Each structure stands twice: as structure tokens, then as C-alpha cells.
Amino acid sequence: MTASLQVRIRPDLKIVRQQGTIEPRFVVKDPVSLRYFYFGEHEMFIMRRLNGQMSVAEIQTAYQEEYAPLKIRPIEITSFCHSLHSRGLAIGGVTGESQQLLQRADQQRLWRWSTAPLSILSIRLPGVDPDAVLTAIAPYFAWLFQRATVALVLAFASVLMLLGLLHAEQILDRMPSAQSLLQGQNLLWMAIALALVKILHELGHALACKHFGGECHQIGVMLLAFIPCLYCDVSDSWLLPERKKRMFVSAAGMYVELIVASLCAVLWCFSEPGMAQSICMSVMLIASVSTVLVNGNPLMRYDGYYLFADWIDVPNLSQQASEALRRPLVHFFTRRATSEIRLDASSAFLRTYAVLALAYRTMVIGVLLWFVYKMLKANDLAPLGDGVVMLVLAGLLLQPAIGFARWWKRPMAKRELRGKRLAAAVIVVSILLLGMLQIPWAARVQTPILAQLADSQTIYVPVEGRIESTVAAGERVVAGAALAKLMNEEIELRRVELTGDLDEQRQHVENLRRQLNNDPTAAAQIPAAEAVLTDLGRQLDVVNRDVERLTIRAPSDGIVFPPPLREEKRGSDRQLSSWSGTPLDLTNRGALLLRGEPLAIVAATNRIEAQLLVHQRDVDLVAPGDEVELLFDGLSGNTIRGRIVEISRAELLAAPRNLAQGAEVLIEQGESGEMALVERTYQATVELDSLPATLLPGTRGKAIVLGRSLTLGERISRWISGNFRFEL
């Protein structure tokens, strides 16, 4: 920039000086892009003189007279003006500059949209401008932000917390277990509670900002770990001069959550077990746990971060902490001169904050990623979960990669680099990474399970029929004994018809043979008549076998057990009588059993064991003797322990009927009508340590096998080989 080049600050910018700060500090609002910037006293001194008339030399002279004995170089003024221009805060007398600003805005918008998929755990959808609506409704909620109301809410919450500590044992007894809390209907209520609480949270920010004179120009929907929540931009609160008001706007969301959590805690204490209690529990946990771990934590860039930054009077805390951590690294690995801009806190404090924030954010992202991946995998969307992992990792590495690429393009980059130090650091980091890859980690294999009697055979109905009689459950039978007799009028009628047709056709063949001497044409008719006779005989044999199979017999000696209970179903045209329970119940006499339905189970003993279906990719991780945690359907979240006693070496071809009907495994119908497994699967037998009285044969569930340990490197290798195929 020369003396003749005129640069001036945009006249539409809004500039506010904040009060209660240690150093004079100004906030500049761009009303077009709705972006906000912090500037110090010295920077603002220069900005106020960028009126398009003063030259660089004149600004330098005025600065050194005002802040003597401090000195400033022309290049520093030029660089500062360039940064203002790149941010869109300054304009110059250059033809076509407005077009350049529009192009820059379009590029920034395109960059935000192109990188949006990389922030897949926190997708912010386009919002609307709610400022007019908030202006209309804000007076009705002004009482929430009065000092008396705030004091009353804090006192009420403190009393509830004290009572909770005094009665902690009784409260813990009423609390559901963590496992049951995140299953089935409770998981649905947790998701709904999260969405509702976060909506109220963001409305609290917006109303507080409006109450103290700020503006809110964007509110919309954000998908937080694929759960819809509300987001609200209250950056205008930075223009509030008083620090207490800015801090209250930052805390308004947690303040509203505190009100909601307190009310739900009271309702939960006086509610009976049921849907209302589950809803209150979900809202109470979300409004308290999320506030402490996420919103109130200063290590995450949420409410607690802005509160902490205002409290210690360090604006842009995250950026300053990153700069404090970056400077010694840049100085160590390069000969490049680092920025000497004064930080608002000690370097040691900022570096400590940067390290803690990086570690905590990494942990939170890892937990969210694990939760989303497990949720998608449980719903047979494992490829989508792999895609989410890849996008998140790409999003974390994209910005550092772009920064490094821009630096490497500089002509002096290679000369500035300290090669020996960088090589030593690479070697140390590589050794540490190799060491981390050798850390053992116990494998946890999740599989579907089926409870069944040991040394048992399930007897299925071979022919459709109505129940005439059955043996009683618990009765001991010998091989060949009748377990049940079925009636099928269609088969009986078909046998009578075929018997009559067969007798008639046999008589017809005999008559033709008698006519051989008198009628020469009879000889030509005999082969066709005999063929019809043979075909009728075959049909009758098939029907007779069906009649015999209407009496279902035991394949071996043993005790008769009922099959899994059947829920009552509506009758159909073919189903003469709707039934429920088991076919062995006396109340089900006359009920229609269809072919393939389970009739009974014959077992040598009454000992129940579990059968696991282990996928081919996991079969090498499990072995006899491995401990297993089992959770059966209908056992109220109670976990049963056991150990593997046998693993089949042969591939399991047909899917167990109960698991196939429950869609626990991927199946397809084979050529002969059987349900075949789509993926290669092996069967393992588990001996149970305890046997609940309510556990019945045929009960489905899920199990986690505590298999052999894998190193982190082996896990990464298995994941890559399971998702990618490399062929040379």
C-alpha cells in the first residue's frame, strides 16, 4: 500500500466498546454478513483513521505520538489494513471492488456447504430470521430474567439437590438401570427429551438476548448425532456493553434447563411407574447430565466456554490458546518468525487450556462416533456407520491439511523448515504410535442367541390339520410314541375319492383283459388304463403318507416340552379357530396347525442352554471357555452369564426358525423352501451359570462374547479388510 492508496472503514459497521474489561476492547458487527470481530485499543486507533484521506505515514506518526514510546512500522499498518479488507470490514477506491466482495462471499458460502458433510455429527440446516417474533413475545417472558425469579430458581434447585443428597439411597432404588434406560421405549423417550430440552435451551438464549437489547437473526434445526435439535445465533450479545449481561445470555440456556429439570424432578418423585415417570426421568437426566458434560463445560465451545472466556476476560479464548500452543511448535520446527501479538493471558495457562480442550473434545467426538456407529450397526446399517467414521475423520484432518498445503506453497517454506528436528519428531511420534498399536484390547463380539433345551429336537407339523389330541407337557415318551393326532377333512375326503377311483380303474383294467378274446381293440386300451391305475396308486400312496403323518410321533426317547408361546392372532379363511399359547394346551383342541409350525420339543433332560450364531468374521475371536453375557427378550433387562462349551466347525446352512422369524439374522428362501442364511455363520453352544424360572425354550435375545484380546493395530487391520478389497 502506498500513500496514494486510500482505504476506509465501512460506514455501516456497528462498533461498541465493552465495559468491565481489564484492557479496552471493542466489538465490531458486520450487519451484512452478521459476523462479529474483537479489536483492541491500538487496533481501533488505526481503524478510526482509515477514512480514505490519511496516508500510511500519517497514521504511523499519529500512532507513535499517541502511544509513545511505542513504535509501529508501515508494513504492520499495511498488513492490518489487508486483514481488514480480507474480512470485508474495509473498502478501497478500486473499481470493481464490490464485485470482488460478492465473489468472496459466494466462495465462503460454497466452502461452508462443501464442508458440511464432514461435520456429520453436527449438521446445521438453514434457519429463519425470528427477530420480529422474538420482539413480540419477549415482554411476556421478561419475568424469567428478573433478579427475584433467578434467585428463586437457584434457591429451589439448591433445596432439591440437598434433599436428593439426603435421600440418595431411596432415589437410586427407583432409578432404572443404565442398560434398561438405553433400550426399547426408554431410548425413544430419551431422544424425544433431548430434542425438546434443547429447543427450550435455545429459546432461553434467544429470549435473554432480546430482553437485554440484542438481536437474533437466525434460528433453525441442527442434527446432533442425527437427533433433531434447535440452534440459535445470539452472537449479537457480544455488543452488550455490560459483561454481566453477556454472561447471563450465555447461561440462559442452562438456566432454562435448570427450571425444567427441577420441575421434572418433583413430578418424578410423586409419579407412579409408567409413561409419565419415564418421560420425567428422561427430561431430568437430559437437562442435568448434558448441561454438566457439554453445555456447562468450558472445554467445549458451548455455553460454559463463553461464560469462562467472559469471566477471565479473554476474548477468542480458543484461538488465543491455539496460538499460544502453536508458537513454540513453529519456533522449534521452523525458522519462521512467529507473531508477537500480545495474548490476553499467560502463555502457560493458555497452553494448558489448549491441551485439555483438545483431549476432552477428542473424547467427546469419540464417544459420539461410537454411539452413532453402534446405533447404525444395530439396525443393519453398518456400511453407513463406516461412512460416518470416514467423514468425521476427514473433517478433523481437512483444516490442518489445508493450512499445511498453503504454508508449503510459500517460496521460503522449505528454507524455513528445520529438517533434523522434524525428522527426530517424526521418529518419536512413530515409535509412540507403534507402541499404541500394540495395546491389547479385549474383543466383544455381539451375536443373536436362542434358548433351547440341551440334546433336544424340535418337532414341526408335517401336514396341516386341526388338533384332535396331544400328550401333556412334561410327559416322558419313547421313540415312536404318538405326540399328537391331527384331523384334516380335505385329506380324508381325498383318500376316499382316490380309493373309489382306484377300485373303479382296477375293475376297468380287469374288464379290458377279459375282452381280449372277443374285442381286438381292447388290447390297445390296456396300456393307457394301466398307466392311469398306476398314477392313481401313487396319488393314494402320497395321501396315505399324509394321513399317517397326521399322527406325529416322537423321534427319540425323552421329555415333552412346549414350544415358544404364540400370541393370539385374528382368524382367517383357512384358520378355523384362532389360538394362542402352545399346541399342547387343552384349550387349543380343534385349532388349526399349519405345516412347519412347531408342535413340541423332545429333550433328554430339562437343562436349557443357549445357541449363538457367530459371523464368519468373528469366529476366530471366540473359543470354548470364553465368558458370555446374555440378555434374553422379556427378562426385564436382567443379564445372564455363561461360557462357551462348543463351537461347530461346520458352517450353519439353515437359519433357526425362531431367529429367522424374528429377523435377527439375514436370511433368504432356498430352492426347497427352507430359510437359508445369507452370510457364512457358525453355531456355538453356551452353558448358562444360572437359569431363571421364566426362561422358556425358543426365547430370543442378544449376547456379548468376551473373546480373545486384539491389539489396536489388529483391530484397524480387520476393519480395513472387512470394508475394503485390495486386489493386485
Unreliable spans are: 1-5, 570-577
Total beta-strand segments: 24
Structural class estimated from helices and strands: alpha+beta
Q: Per the principal axes of the C-alpha atoms, what is the gross shape?
A: elongated
Give the biggest beta sheet. 6 strands, antiparallel, barrel
Strand content: 15-25%
- Order of strands across the widest beta sheet? 9-18-23-20-19-24
Mean pLDDT over the residues = 79
Helix coverage percent of residues?
40-55%
Report the radius of gyration as a whole number of Å. 39 Å
**Roughly how many Å apart are the termini?**
57 Å
Number of helices: 21
Explain the overall architecture.
There is one protein chain. It contains 21 helices and 24 strands. Helix 9 (184-211) packs across helix 11, helix 13 crosses helix 14 and helix 14 (347-378) runs antiparallel to helix 15 (382-408). The longest helix is centred in the middle third of the chain and has 32 residues, at 347-378. The protein has a six-stranded antiparallel β-barrel with strand order 9-18-23-20-19-24. A four-stranded antiparallel β-sheet has the order 10-17-15-12, with no helix packed on it. The protein is elongated, with a radius of gyration of 39 Å. The protein has 728 residues and is α+β, with helices and mostly antiparallel strands. The model is unreliable at 1-5 and 570-577 (pLDDT under 50).
